[in-house]
Write a structure and sequence with these properties.
The chain is an all-alpha fold and about 150 residues long. About 75% of the residues lie in helices and about 5% in strands. It is built from 5 helices and 2 strands; from the N terminus they run H-H-E-E-H-H-H. The chain has a two-stranded antiparallel sheet. The two termini are about 25 Å apart. The model has no long low-confidence stretch (mean pLDDT about 80).
């Protein structure tokens, strides 16, 4: 679990934002890169803070800690990470998404439908397994403390 969840949501959000508002039209070269950077940096930072808080309260474990970094807030977020988060949506929207979208559009609709369901099932089981592992880790840590 941990921060990989944040990476996924940040990337999905960038794609959604581009499609929904046509804010980052990679095919015309007229994308608003400053907006893309700001949305990515702020969105991922807010999500990182919320995720860190929820996971710490739910599992009693801190999965990352920025207390040693300058300009951190409660050790859950920091300026350095925020700056780096801003580049992730750019990489996704400008570099990775166009060829992936092109390949997906070439797949037969029926194959795409069943593949999507298959991937959904795999991700659901993976999430459940990760959640169970996190709960088990919490129990181990509680036993170690007691």
């Amino acid at each position: 679990m941990g921060q990989s969840w944040i990476y996924d949501r940040t990337l999905y959000s960038a794609i959604w934002f581009r499609c929904r508002f046509d804010a980052f039209p990679y095919d015309t070269g007229e994308g608003n890169y400053l907006l893309m950077y700001i949305v990515g940096a702020i969105g991922a930072t807010v999500l990182e803070y919320i995720t860190g808080t929820v996971m710490e309260n739910l599992f009693g474990v801190r999965y990352w800690d920025y207390t040693e970094k300058k300009f951190n807030f409660r050790g859950r977020i920091c300026l350095e990470a925020t700056i780096l988060w801003g580049f992730l949506p750019f990489a996704m929207v400008e570099v990775i998404q166009p060829p992936v979208e092109h390949m997906v559009m070439m797949i037969n609709d029926k194959v795409l439908y069943y593949t999507t369901w298959g991937i959904t099932v795999v991700f659901t089981f993976d999430f459940a397994s990760s959640f169970r592992t996190a709960i088990d880790l919490k129990e181990v840590l509680v036993q170690a403390e007691g």
